[in-house]
Amino acid sequence: MIEIKHLYKSFGDKEVLKDISTVFEAGKTNLIIGQSGSGKTVLIKNLVGLLAPTRGEVLYDGRNFVAMSKREKAAMRREMGMIFQNAALFDSLSVLENVMFPLDMFSAMTYRERVKRAQECLDRVNLIDAQLKFPGEISGGMQKRVAIARAIVMNPKYLFCDEPNSGLDPKTSLVIDELLSGLTKEYNMTTIINTHDMNSVMGIGENIIFIYNGRKEWQGTKDEVMSSTNKRLNALVFASNLFKKVKEVEMETLPPGD
């Protein structure tokens, strides 16, 4: 579990995050949603230590990450996996070598053990046959799956995903969503996904945090999204024709007087 308490982040005179307090639940897919510029990416960067909060606490199972020493933070980051928006693979390394990279850097495994572990993760994302290829030789969706394999190779307790479906077609996005959801349960991870994809929200959103103008505006499950009376949330979620139709169908099926 990750808990943030009264988190603020400012850049000069501009306050980007404003008194955010929430809990990201272990074993669940926690989604952060909001319009561009709402503070989603800044929030994730504060959670993983790429940015330091102006004030507030970030608690990993009760451990205050903000107050840790550099050495303690470095040890803490070994419990984290990160999937970047553009996959961030090394072009000069093979798929297998990309997945092995965290093991090469941080584990005490032998070379043979590292290869075996990386292959296990590639097999889990159905890419074992692509292990000798290079990133430029595989599709964008396959690159995202390689990034997922690399993110889980160290058996993380916490998984962070920044727009994992960015640039993908709807079918491939569904594959990525199902993979992330399945791995969250399998590893009992605290998974946090920053997304604009409302299909992801309705598909795998077990705990959804809606950020508006740097503040936590709403929090709930994917089922509660459908019945929310928050106008700002509805404006975001039901902006597409797909969700307008879903809402209209639900209203038509309500008993008279409801």
From TrEMBL:
Keywords on record: ATP-binding, Nucleotide-binding, Transport
PROSITE patterns: ABC_TRANSPORTER_1, ABC_TRANSPORTER_2
InterPro entries, sorted: AAA+_ATPase (IPR003593), ABC_transporter-like_ATP-bd (IPR003439), ABC_transporter-like_CS (IPR017871), P-loop_NTPase (IPR027417)
GO molecular function: ATP binding; ATP hydrolysis activity
Pfam family, one: ABC_tran
SUPFAM superfamilies hit by this protein: P-loop containing nucleoside triphosphate hydrolases (SSF52540)
Domain ABC transporter positions: 2-238
Protein name: ABC transporter domain-containing protein
